[in-house]
Amino acid sequence: MQLTFIGATHEVTGSCMFLSACGKNILIDYGMEQGKNIYENVDLPVLPFNIDYVFLTHAHIDHSGLLPLLYKNGFKGEVHATITTHSLCEIMLLDSAHIQEQEAEYQNRKGMRSAETPVQPLYDSDDARGVLSHFVDHRYDRTDNVCEGIRIRFTDAGHLLGSASIEVFLNEDGEERKVVFSGDIGNKGQPLIRDPHYLKDADYVVMESTYGNRNHEPVEDNVPLLAAVIQRTLDRGGNVVIPAFAVGRTQEILYYLRKIKVDGLVKGHDGFPVYVDSPLAINATKVFVDNAQYCYEKEAAALLKQGINPIGCPDLVTAVTSEESIAINTDTVPKIIISASGMCDAGRVRHHLKHNLWRPECTILFVGYQAVGTPGRAIHDGAEKIKLFGEEIAVKAEIGVLRGLSGHADHDGLIEWVTSFKQKPKRIFVNHGEASVCETFAEELHTQYGFETFTPYSGTSFDLLKNEFIRITMGIPVQEKKQDKEPQGSKPSPKSLYAKLLIAFDRLASLIRNGSGRANADIEKMTRKINDLCNDWEDKN
Predict the structure, then answer these.
(1) pLDDT digits 0-9 by tens, 253-279
(2) At 423, is the secondary structure helix, strand, or coil?
(3) In terms of domains, do 169 and 275 share one?
(4) Cα–Cα distance, 501 to 508 (Å, whole number)
(5) Reported pTM
(6) What is the reported pLDDT for 511?
(7) For the purposes of burial, counting CB atoms within 10 Å of the CB of 146, is it exposed (0-12), middle (13-18) or buried (19 or more)?
(8) What distance, in Å, lies between the first and last C-alpha atoms of the chain?
(9) Quick one: which of 97, 186, 254, 293 has the most CB atoms within 10 Å?
């Protein structure tokens, strides 16, 4: 039984771990890195077609976003997740694929005149649909067999609809171990999502530390705070632009807006329009409604029992098509615009910033974490100008932050989660946090609470049976490593293309080695195709 750390090590995004046990190769999450990439990640220890299972904690792209790439490169195993995570991934992974396709198309249009080699998207919609067909659904709090020697249980992590901490029960050659992967631990008291559920026992724990060095600021009820922002902006004749994550944060803002409108907290602007300009957010909202009875907290669930949709905001307008999105900014009526992405690094919100950021009467209201290196973080930190679509836009609008909306547990919430274990685990691995946060939080767990802790870098490997390290690595900053990987959205280097060829060769070799039982006709057909390829390759050389 070996656990190897791949992504989100001394970083906040790109979650991925590799578990080898009971003769199976397993990934826990396979997420995309977002914002600034600090450290290089090692490659997966095995090729994608040799991975048997993926255990997915939740649908956020920094945990699920590379699953279509895994499928594209040969993965044919099973993805185990909660039912609701599967539903959200059906829209989020297809949306991510669409973004990859659009970016490649844009780069190719730019490169046509210079006859550059066409850029290929990281993955496409067929890859997303392909991996979605491999999902296996699970309910909360039920222990399910995966294969001989491996059982799993999903427990509500309270971070996102369907999010989970995953308990993995391993039995290999009579030796038993239980490993808990926290996923992203939720913040208590969120307006829609239930509080995180706590676990009682484990041999090993891998836990996140996003807010491991600070607590969320105490805030008053967010409803009157949001109402005040809307009141003064509409009084000025401006728009309130809310960059919001399409899944989770958008639905929370709609929950607040429903209360503001029903209670008449904004005066003199009856029927002010609320636009949700994000096809992903619109589809995600449907998933929230369909799964409300399983995941909502008490107040929202009580509204549901009364036949009231907790996120059914009056005067709501949804923009699906590009034409509907463009029309929002041609309409001079003061309004609320909720659009993705939440960090302003992609999506339609960038168009709304272009039309509103320079207007002093408008407000840009941040309602979520802004990662280092994103436009949202730059605006949040006081930038005077932002470049959008090749044009510099002055920052003249009011910049506001609605605090207390984090989907992540703060320092005290993380402590409450980890101290819920009745018997101390043999070791706690701290990841999914900025480098300094991982280190200080792990040290606190050790010195003040008596836990044996470790903060792994990518490539660190641990023997779960012997309770000892196989390999301890140090972080390699991105700028210190030669760029031998294919940057997303750029022309692929000859070296990266050759690496892809080697992966394809290994896949072919594996198929041939395991193909002795195939029909003679199939073997003859494959032999002929391989010889044809070889002849063609030799002719071109």
Answers:
(1) 999 999 999 999 999 999 999 999 988
(2) coil
(3) no
(4) 11
(5) 0.82
(6) 67
(7) buried
(8) 46
(9) 186
**Helix or strand or coil: residue 88?**
helix
Task: Give the CA radius of gyration of the chain.
Answer: 25
The CATH number for 198's domain is 3.60.15.10
Omega before 341 within 30 of 0, i.e. cis: yes
Domain boundary among 401, 423, 454: 401
For 539, the enclosing helix (H) or strand (E) is helix 520-540
Q: Range of 326's domain?
A: 222-401
Is the distance from CB of 62 to CB of 210 less than 8 angstroms?
Answer: no
- Long-range CB contacts for residues 477-484, cutoff 8 Å, separation at least 24: 477/38, 477/39, 477/40, 478/37, 478/38, 478/39, 478/40, 481/40
Q: Give the length of the chain.
A: 541
Do the domain assignments include residue 336?
Answer: yes
Domain final residue, candidates 401, 416, 432: 401
Tens-place pLDDT, residues 438-463:
999 999 999 999 999 999 999 999 99
What pLDDT does 420 receive?
96
Q: How far apart are CA 431 and CA 435, in angstroms?
A: 9
DSSP string covering 89-126, please? HHHHHHHHHHHHHHHHHHHHHHHTTTTPPPPPPSS-HH
Please identify which residue in the block is written with the tokens 């590009």.
Answer: 322
- Answer for the pair 276, 338: CB distance below 8 angstroms, yes or no: yes
